[in-house]
């Protein structure tokens, strides 16, 4: 399986706009900045020397002008540009990775099935969770190297994620439930097309059912954020979805229909559960923002007359009027009250907490400060000739690439050490809320003290 070609040009209207020169980009910058109350909007390569000189206030002259956004067309901007906090949500990529846990009861349904193909269908239902939340147009924070996020649910499900690489950004996570486990290495890439951004969810997702010994491998379709510069932002997901039972060879193949003119076909998905011998046995249909159904089908893939239709997944109702369009489950992932997670936990990030509280100024300052410490740590490692290693994940001895997976070159392999769930935690804050307090993913504490001696938000 090959990586999407991030260098290919798009035959779109925005390519034509790019050929018009700086005029249209200047207009876009002026319009967007006027709308947001900014006189200037800039983009910066965080690894450049200019990016390490510190903020200079409202209009930061160290950064490239917004009109140079056209220079990024066709490029992967996953970690190339430093974005202002007012286009972000108070959420990190590690938290976003955890949203797949919302409908984990689908895996319990799978464990109850004797029919291996119905069991496969219920696993598909579990994997639909991220699309119920994918229409949020806000960008989550890129995690700091070594940042973590952990989750414990009432039914005993435990989840732990860690940022294992910064350039390129890669997160790894492990979850355990009653009779199943879930592992993911998330290494998404993007392609900036001018007025849209393609998001390729490269990764390695494995779902294990302990009762049957089956291992399932997921490859989801890409998404696209439209109108990121001019117009109202909207999200579409289109392309092939594949979930393979790597133990037996049975698979689910679905197609997410691209949005056509006047919204035709938007959200629609359809496909089949296919046996090891290539026979279609279950038809699947629905909409990726609302539901997915299954029904037994004939060999042509058509539903059998009078066969029962079973709902595999239904998106839960969402809060009305939420500023960031967070689901109820996503809101829960942000709650810090009554919790005392690892010091490296996303909830403790001061920039995320400030944005959640509506303080964009402080959020921007804290975001820059965290990035500054991260850059300083990188320089210190290079100076000392030392390396950085994750705490809770390691390179596996067995590097077997399962069917349906990306190569190791495309998506590096990481495995859970098994030691992260029962580690001693920091003392709970006196007010019982860890949000924005005690964030410490750092390798060198002396750098933090040197750069932020008066900080009470990033270390304690």
From TrEMBL:
One of its GO terms (cellular component) is cytosol. It holds the Pfam family Oxysterol_BP. PROSITE patterns: OSBP. One of its GO terms (molecular function) is sterol binding. Signal peptide: none annotated. Residues 340-386, 417-436 are annotated as: Disordered. InterPro entries: OSBP_sf, Oxysterol-bd, Oxysterol-bd_CS. One of its GO terms (biological process) is intermembrane lipid transfer. Residues 345-359, 368-386 have a biased composition (Basic and acidic residues). Belongs to the OSBP family. This is Oxysterol-binding protein. The lineage of its organism: Eukaryota, Viridiplantae, Chlorophyta, core chlorophytes, Trebouxiophyceae.
């Amino acid at each position: 399986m090959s990586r999407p070609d991030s260098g290919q040009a798009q035959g779109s209207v925005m390519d034509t706009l790019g050929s018009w020169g700086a005029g249209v980009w200047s207009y876009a910058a002026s319009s967007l900045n006027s709308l947001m109350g900014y006189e200037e909007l800039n983009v910066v390569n965080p690894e450049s020397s200019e990016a390490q000189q510190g903020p200079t206030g409202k209009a930061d002259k160290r950064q490239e002008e917004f009109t140079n956004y056209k220079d990024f067309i066709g490029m992967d901007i996953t970690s190339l540009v430093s974005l202002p906090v007012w286009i972000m949500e108070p959420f990190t990529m590690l938290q976003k990775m955890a949203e797949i846990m919302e409908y984990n009861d689908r895996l319990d349904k799978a464990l109850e099935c004797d029919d291996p193909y119905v069991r496969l269908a219920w696993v598909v239902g579990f994997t639909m969770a991220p699309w119920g939340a994918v229409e949020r147009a806000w960008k989550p924070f890129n995690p700091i190297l070594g940042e973590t996020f952990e989750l414990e649910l009432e039914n005993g499900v435990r989840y732990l994620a860690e940022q294992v690489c910064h350039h390129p950004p890669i997160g790894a996570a492990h979850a355990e439930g009653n009779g199943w486990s879930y592992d993911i290495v998330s290494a998404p890439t993007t392609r900036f097309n001018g007025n849209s951004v393609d998001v390729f969810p490269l990764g390695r997702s494995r779902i294990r059912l302990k009762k049957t010994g089956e291992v399932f491998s997921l490859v989801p379709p890409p998404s696209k954020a439209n109108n990121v510069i001019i117009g109202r932002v909207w999200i579409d997901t289109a392309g092939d979805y594949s979930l393979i039972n790597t133990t037996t060879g049975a698979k689910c193949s679905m197609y997410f229909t691209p949005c056509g003119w006047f919204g035709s076909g938007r959200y629609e998905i359809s496909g089949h559960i296919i046996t090891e011998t290539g026979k279609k046995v279950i038809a699947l249909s629905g909409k990726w923002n609302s539901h997915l159904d299954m029904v037994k089908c004939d060999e042509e893939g058509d539903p059998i007359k009078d066969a029962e239709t079973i709902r595999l997944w239904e998106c839960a109702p969402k809060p009305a009027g939420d500023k960031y369009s967070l689901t109820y489950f996503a809101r829960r992932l942000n709650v810090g009250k009554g919790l005392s997670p690892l010091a490296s936990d996303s909830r403790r990030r001061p920039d995320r907490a400030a944005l959640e509280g509506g303080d964009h100024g402080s959020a921007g300052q804290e975001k820059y400060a965290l990035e500054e410490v991260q850059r300083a740590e990188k320089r210190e490692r290079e100076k000392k000739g030392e390396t950085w290693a994750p705490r809770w994940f390691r390179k596996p001895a067995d590097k077997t690439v399962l069917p349906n997976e990306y190569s190791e070159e495309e998506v590096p392999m990481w495995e859970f050490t098994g030691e992260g769930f029962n580690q001693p935690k920091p003392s709970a804050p006196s007010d019982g809320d860890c949000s924005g307090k005690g964030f410490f993913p750092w390798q060198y504490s002396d750098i933090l003290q040197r750069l932020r001696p008066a900080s009470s938000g990033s270390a304690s």
